[in-house]
Amino acid sequence: MTFDLFLQHLSNGISLGSLYALIAIGYTMVYGILRLINFAHGDIFMMATYFAFFGIVTFGIPWYITFPVILIITALLGMTVEATAYRPLRDAPKISILISAIGASFLLENLAIVLFGGVPKPFPTPEVFTDVVKIGTVSIQKLTFYIPVVTIVFLVGLTYLINKTKVGMAMRALSKDHETARVMGVNVNQIISLTFGIGSMLAAVGGIMWGLKFPQISPLMGVIPGMKCFIAAVIGGIGNIKGAVVGGFILGVGEILLVAFLPDLTGYRDAFAFVLLILILLYKPTGIMGEQIAEKV
Amino acid sequence: MRRNTILTAIALLLLIGFIAVADNFFDLYIVRILNLCAIYTILGLSMNLINGFTGLFSLGHAGFMAVGAYVTALLTIPPDVKKQIFYMTPIMSPLDVMNLPFPLALLGGGLLTAFVAYLIGAPALKLKGDYLAIATLGFGEIIRVIFTNTQSITNGALGLKGIPNTTNLWWSFGTALFTLVVIASLINSSYGRALMAIREDEVAAESMGIHLAKHKNLSFIIGAFFAGIGGGLLGNLLGTIDPKMFTFTLTFNILLIIVLGGMGSLSGSVISAFVVTIANEWLRFLDEQINLGFVVIQGKVGTRMVVFSVLLMVVVLFYRHGLMGNRELTWDSLLNSKIWRGISARWRKTAVAEGGEK
Amino acid sequence: MALLDMSQVSMRFGGLTAVKDFNLQLHPGEIVGLIGPNGAGKTTVFNMITGVYKPSAGTIRFNGNEIGGMRPDLITQQGIARTFQNIRLFKELTVLENVLIANHLHLASNFMEAILKLPRYRREEAAMREKSLKLLERLGLLEHQNDKASSLPYGLQRRLEIARALATEPKLLLLDEPAAGMNPKEAADLTVFIKEIRDEFDLTILLIEHHMDVVMTICDRIYVLVYGTMIASGEPAEIQSNQQVIEAYLGVDEDAENQ
Question: Which domains are delineated in chain C?
Fold first, then answer.
């Protein structure tokens, strides 16, 4: 393999990794606070791409207006899912909440099939993103550079929110102990709702860029990325935002390089993440950056 | 005790009579639905053993079924048919000539599935809660990916066609009954109590001397065995299988059955398997065109699953314990139920009244 | 020879040392108390003895066998049983089932024999039931045998936990705050009860307790743990007059010290 080709694969891997990272953050934020997989997260990501599709294609709204609006709509969708599928079960056994989450995920997928049709739709790709840049002999889409940059911008914003604002402090408090946080005056439901909102918004950012990179959207497009990003979050150490980013990059780059170096295994690409998950859980269940939580006996 | 044995015998005879009648006189569509009901009973019972009784949130059922279905199909398709199906890549030997009678093939499917579960269980069952859920879900996906790529064994994405339609009502209901008896007997034994103890509290169970890994594996393997057999019955009922059949949606349907019936209730799973399977057929119109004679309503693909997802959520949100919770339908509970008491009281009254007239 | 011998045992969680260089000997038939303020590491000691935690350092010998870090169920099999501070019954199961489950470790029949209900299994099951019912009768729980464990009043739930532990046929019984939430009268009854079961079931007992009346009446010896370190051990009278223990419990009055 030539160095140029390697560079091309690597840049692909990095932009895929950025997308994984953005979606993985949503899982890790919700898990940090509720100790729960938000099964519907991948489907919220899918819905965001459809919202963008309808904004641009159906209503003809320019992309620079559509995209920001989509972020807000998707955040609201995430908050709605939380209010209907999760909030009523706050004190229920974990297994019930998981089942409700699976129900919500299926509901979104099948609603999408009914409302938007099962046939994949082409995602609108403004030229600003698809222009090609040539570096030596390597030609790379501008988008490939934009994706990591956008990811970093949102990451910085999120880090600021979590570490420097009151809301962020409330989130951190909740992730340690709900009861104490409540006693200290944190509005638990409001903060959880906000967490879902922010996570969903990041999923929307990921979704839009995903659509630009792989311009074909379908109702089940969120399933596999959803699972992979949860895995990325686990690899990085669930509950830890930096970990989610690291995990996203490891998975994204690893996947692309696996296919590049071992083309025979291309068919097994989607299995790679799960194998990695099982290995991580067995040998370092807290992930790369996660903290040890001992069960109280 | 005596009364219950007699009642059971009567019920069994009625069931046999029903199957004999259905097998000979019912139309094929109804027979097919009945077969599906029985197969989903097997699947529901086996998943309930793992999830409802042992408290392991496993979502790998579709994967188990895939293994069972492929093994059974490969062992029952006649060699010359296999040659035709595998036109892209020839089937590897000795699978090309292997051929077994249906019951042996079914058993082989179950045993191999159990073996696969044993291999997965060793690492996966160390995980808890949603980690186990995602790992088993992942396993189901891995199986599908493997089956799509091992062309010379599974025929890849093309799937298997020409599977002999050996599944009939005798096989499906017979196996369902067998599954019920075996799992009920396990649950009502010291091993079953150990499994439920693990569900209730792992730490306490372990400190009561219960070997967690051994018992979790036991439940997982027995559950997988019956899931494999259920898969085998399904494949040989439908006649064709391919990797796309065994997606998470299939697991979702079984999950709906055990949640609706009550996690931890065998009779609940049986009732719910029939309800869900029949509803699945009955609601088919939602996905298709409805012709009311004077007006044609265009159904939309996916509507049925929307209904099912809403149903699952409603059950979990508002009726968490499902139809039966962790209670069981027994002769005693039936005869003590209000409905039955009402009926028998009225009976007695009329009997007394008639007696008085004489 | 000591029945249980813990030597230089430490437990660290990340940077936090919960128990440091802990030593403890239990002799057959003794009732020994483990006391100390909240968060002193008492339950951690129990968790190390029962295998829930693997000690970071040191040895734990039971009957001469090293059991430190052994799987909890194997330790129970060797003859150590426990109750939990925050009652951990099998809530949805009946009282009888709770006790039957604790018999499972003695079952010789395999699962096939159990499913097929073969003669050996039937015999074992019948014996197990008889034994459990006898135990429930002895502990005054017989009338509740078919009640859900979670439906029992609090005091009886604690009692059921002890019944369940006894059903495993232990030589050493660990009781984690058995008198928690009891009034003085109930606590007094409990002390009698603990002595009775010690004699009847031929037990050695190690208990964590905050009710000083209970501890001082029934314990032959007492260990005092503060911030993971043992600061004193000895007979109740010695402990009661130990200056360090009094300080640890009452806190040091700094003004008084300066004077």
Answer: 1-79+170-259 (3.40.50.300), 88-168 (no CATH)
* Residue B185 forms contact with A (CB below 8 Å): no
Helix (H/G/I), strand (E/B), else coil: C230: strand
Range of the domain at A113: 18-220
Domain residue ranges in chain B: 26-327, 331-358
Q: What count of Cα atoms within 13 Å lies in the side-chain half-sphere of residue A12? A: 18
Identify the bridge partners of residue C226 per DSSP, sorted by sequence position.
C229
CB contact under 8 A, C43 and A292: no
Q: Does C103 touch chain A (CB under 8 A)?
A: no
What are the strands, taking DSSP E only, across chain C?
Answer: 4-13, 16-26, 31-35, 57-62, 65-66, 80-82, 172-176, 204-208, 221-226, 229-234
Q: Which of A102, A220, A235, A293 to mutate to test the interface with B (most CBs of B within 10 A)?
A: A102
**A9, A30, A21, A29: which is closest to A246 by C-alpha?**
A21
C14 to chain A: closest CA residue: A292
Query: A75 in a domain, yes or no?
Result: yes
Task: Report yes or no on A270 lying in a domain.
Answer: no
- β-pair partners for C59: C7
Among chain C residues, the shortest Cα distance to B215 is held by C111
In a mutagenesis test of the B interface, which of A110, A231, A297 is the best target, namely the one with the most B β-carbons within 10 Å? A110
Closest to B200 (Cβ–Cβ): which among C81, C92, C109? C92
A201 domain-assigned = yes
The Cα–Cα gap between A220 and A273 comes to 18
3-state secondary structure of C108: coil
**Burial B196-219, CB ≥16 within 10 A → b, else e:** bbbbbbbbbbbbbbbbbeebbbbb
Domain B26-327 sits in CATH 2.60.40: no
Gap from A241 CA to chain C (nearest CA, Å): 21
Looking at residue A86, the DSSP 8-state letter turns out to be I
pTM: 0.90
- Residue of C70, C101, C117, C118 to mutate when probing chain B, most B C-beta within 10 A: C101
* C229: β partners: C226
Q: Give Cβ neighbours of residue B269 (< 8 Å, ≥ 6 apart).
A: B41, B44, B45, B48, B52, B257, B258, B261, B262
Chain C residues touching A93 at Cβ < 8 A: none
Find the closest chain A residue to C46 by CA distance: A297
A213 is a domain residue: yes
- Residue-wise pLDDT tens for chain B (358 aa)? 678 889 889 999 999 999 999 988 899 999 999 999 999 999 999 999 999 999 999 999 999 999 999 999 999 999 999 988 888 888 888 888 889 999 999 999 999 999 999 999 988 888 888 888 888 988 898 899 999 999 899 999 999 999 999 999 999 999 999 999 999 999 999 999 999 999 999 999 999 999 999 999 999 999 999 999 999 999 999 999 999 999 999 999 999 999 999 999 999 999 999 999 999 888 887 777 666 666 666 677 788 889 999 999 999 899 888 888 888 888 888 888 777 778 777 777 776 666 555 4
The A residues from 238 to 297 touching C (CB cutoff 8 Å) are: 292, 294, 297
Helices (H) and strands (E) in chain A, counts: 12, 4
Question: How far apart are alpha carbons B114 and B225 in whole angstroms?
Answer: 5
Sign of the dihedral defined by the CA atoms of residues A36, A40, A46, A50, in that order: negative
Name chain B's partners: 3 or more CB pairs within 8 A.
A, C
Task: Return all residues near A112 (Cβ < 8 A) that are at least 6 apart.
Answer: A43, A46, A47, A50, A219, B302
| Cβ separation A223–B248 shorter than 8 A | yes
Residue C259 — very low, low, confident or very high, per pLDDT cuts 50/70/90?
very low
CA angle B337, B339, B341 (to 5 degrees): 70
